Amino acid sequence: MSWLTLSVHRYSMALLAYAFAAIMVGTTLPTPMYALFAEDLHFHVLTTTLIFAAYAGGVLAALLGFGRWSDVVGRRPVLLAGIAFAAASAVVFVLADSVPELLIGRVLSGLSAGLFTGTATAAVIEAAPPAWRSRAAAVASVVNIGGLGTGPVLAGVLVQYAPRPLDLSFIVHLVLCAAAAVAVLCSPETSPREGTLGVQRLAVPPEARSVFVVAALAAFAGFAVTGLFAAVAPSFVAEVVGIGNHAVAGVIAGSVFLTSAVAQVPARTMDPGRAVAAGCAILIAGMAILAVALHFSSLPGLIAAAVISGVGQGISFSRGLAAVSDRTPAERRAEVSSTYFVVAYVAIAVPVVGEGLAAQAWGLRTSGVVFAVSVAVLAAVCLVAILLRERQPARV
């Protein structure tokens, strides 16, 4: 084996982590641009939320239809397919001049994310050198969520301060995709290539169901919040607060993901049940601040709500998955994890479309407050359920 090959293998975890982040950046790039697309194509918040929700549909289709393929055909072919979908999405957005084209672009982006989420996580973990083996799962999670958070920030700055506001971000992402493809091609294959192709099965074994219900409800609440900020935060900034700066909107939308990624690092050492409870309590605080910020049209309040909610979402989601995994037999963890992620991506799509419908009926401010109260109630139910379980011998 040549010196170059040894060097590439040594850094394969970093190369795959870069590819993971680069693709996830593209999935949230459109967030600061929705207002511009709406102005050019004459649509309102409901259409924005439907365009955003199309992404979750693509993710779910890829997770369910191709979730097991990388175990059979290898990690690299599936990752390269994900990169191809991401690049196709960027091209569609550059050329888009109608709502159906925006929907297609979001579905393609969702397919890329769905292919990457499980496959890149496994590849990063498998490529980790011995010194990083215990931290590889956390690295994969932080890279995933961090990429989601970087997308709106990058696009917001480019839209506000660079030329060609509806094109440049996607052109930049095409360059990132090309570099991601090189990174994947330079990395060794890590899959044993075993098993048969098929649809990903969704199920939860009886011994994990009670824990799963609580953890999944907490995940639903947290991902509903990320969906709200990713789809509607720019509208909050422009229409409720009255600030038309796209960079500010991008920072607010991105901060909920970035703080989620940061919070997951120290949360790794927390007891899963108590961590989910803490995450729910923090999420309730974030939603209370959001409701007050919308009522008083406060930009600092919106920023604080995004940051605090991101912390709560990151802790409750990551440790909720750990709690479920602890109760699940090893041979069934893949299907349980897939079920957990399906709940999360349904939460990204469905509540935010409800927010769009409510905004048409009641206005953006009122619908946002109702959304915040609803999520806080759901998080409170999870918190009470966990506290009641803590009093019993069998703990979350």
TrEMBL record:
Keywords: Cell membrane, Membrane, Transmembrane, Transmembrane helix, Transport. Its main location: membrane. The chain crosses the membrane at residues 12-37, 43-66, 78-96, 102-125, 137-162, 168-186, 211-237, 243-263, 275-296, 302-322, 342-362, 368-388. One of its GO terms (cellular component) is plasma membrane. GO terms for molecular function: transmembrane transporter activity. InterPro entries: MFS, MFS_dom, MFS_trans_sf, MFS_Transporters. SUPFAM superfamilies: MFS general substrate transporter. It is a multi-pass membrane protein. Residues 5-392 form the Major facilitator superfamily (MFS) profile domain. It is found in: Cell membrane. Gene3D superfamilies: MFS general substrate transporter like domains. PANTHER family: MAJOR FACILITATOR SUPERFAMILY MFS_1, RESISTANCE PROTEIN MDTM, PUTATIVE-RELATED-RELATED. This is Multidrug resistance protein MdtH. It comes from Mycolicibacterium chlorophenolicum.
